[in-house]
């Protein structure tokens, strides 16, 4: 392959396969099978993220406006956190050993592409936390320090429509990040392509399948919120489940047959 080609031309070498509207449900089913076949790597990831969320909750318990932004920003950086589990699903697909070591090896800092894209997602997540914090502090009619304050002054603030505006702002900022990352991170793990090529391919996937990908985004958000609502315990299962499912979304959507895979 001529990797000196412009990124858009390289991206066009990857076909986008047609899928039906409800295909994301199949990705969830495939992700669940992977989690059952290789549970330990996923559960270790899930426990680590749930513990991090618990620590964050304790540290920010008097600043719930910050906590709300941080937990919603988690959705933006989740593709980076799932990198090791993409490797596990790939190993299962190749009928290779899929262990915790498989997942940890994906984190070796020897691939600048993963580092660059991870930093971009981290910047996006940080930007949303700062934006969310500023928005709530500026427009909330009263200080928001606890979950009760957030519920009373933001969620149930009917006159100001603050919660609706906060959700709208989050959706506007999250949509391009989702479109840029929905298949980009597993693609970078799987193929020797540049970050821009992976991002452009991800955008092509979303543009060609807006309704199935909108359903996929809604499923990701709903399951993540459910995991958080169970005192974070649900994240132990939800995080690896969605990670494995995201690998299958990438493999289902992107035709990579014309580009050599990485070992």
TrEMBL record:
Keywords: Membrane, Transmembrane, Transmembrane helix
Taxonomy, superkingdom: Bacteria
InterPro entries registered for this protein in UniProt: DUF2189 (IPR018692)
Membrane-spanning intervals of the chain: 42-60, 66-88, 114-142, 162-184, 213-243
Pfam families in the record: DUF2189
Protein name as annotated: DUF2189 domain-containing protein
Species in which this protein is naturally found: Azohydromonas caseinilytica
């Amino acid at each position: 392959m001529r990797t000196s080609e412009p990124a858009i031309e390289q991206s066009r070498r990857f076909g986008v396969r047609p899928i039906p509207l409800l295909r994301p449900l199949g990705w969830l089913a495939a992700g669940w099978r992977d989690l059952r076949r290789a549970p330990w790597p996923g559960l270790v990831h899930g426990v680590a993220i749930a513990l991090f969320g618990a620590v964050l909750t304790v540290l920010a318990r008097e600043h719930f406006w910050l906590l709300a932004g941080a937990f919603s920003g988690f959705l933006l950086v989740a593709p980076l956190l799932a990198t090791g589990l993409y490797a596990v699903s790939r190993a299962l697909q190749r009928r290779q050993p899929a262990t915790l070591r498989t997942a940890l090896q994906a984190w070796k800092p020897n691939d600048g592409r993963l580092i660059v894209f991870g930093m971009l997602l981290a910047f996006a997540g940080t930007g949303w936390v700062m934006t969310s914090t500023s928005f709530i502090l500026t427009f909330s009619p009263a200080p928001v320090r606890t979950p009760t304050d957030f519920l009373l002054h933001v969620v149930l603030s009917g006159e100001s429509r603050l919660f609706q505006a906060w959700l709208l702002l989050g959706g506007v900022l999250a949509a391009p990040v989702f479109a840029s990352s929905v298949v980009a991170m597993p693609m970078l793990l799987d193929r020797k392509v540049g970050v821009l090529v992976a991002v452009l391919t991800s955008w092509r996937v979303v543009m060609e399948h807006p309704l199935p990908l909108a359903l996929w985004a809604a499923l990701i958000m709903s399951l993540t919120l459910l995991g958080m609502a169970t005192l974070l315990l649900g994240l132990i299962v939800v995080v690896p489940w969605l990670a494995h499912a995201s690998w299958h979304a990438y493999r289902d959507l992107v035709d990579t047959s014309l580009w050599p895979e990485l070992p």
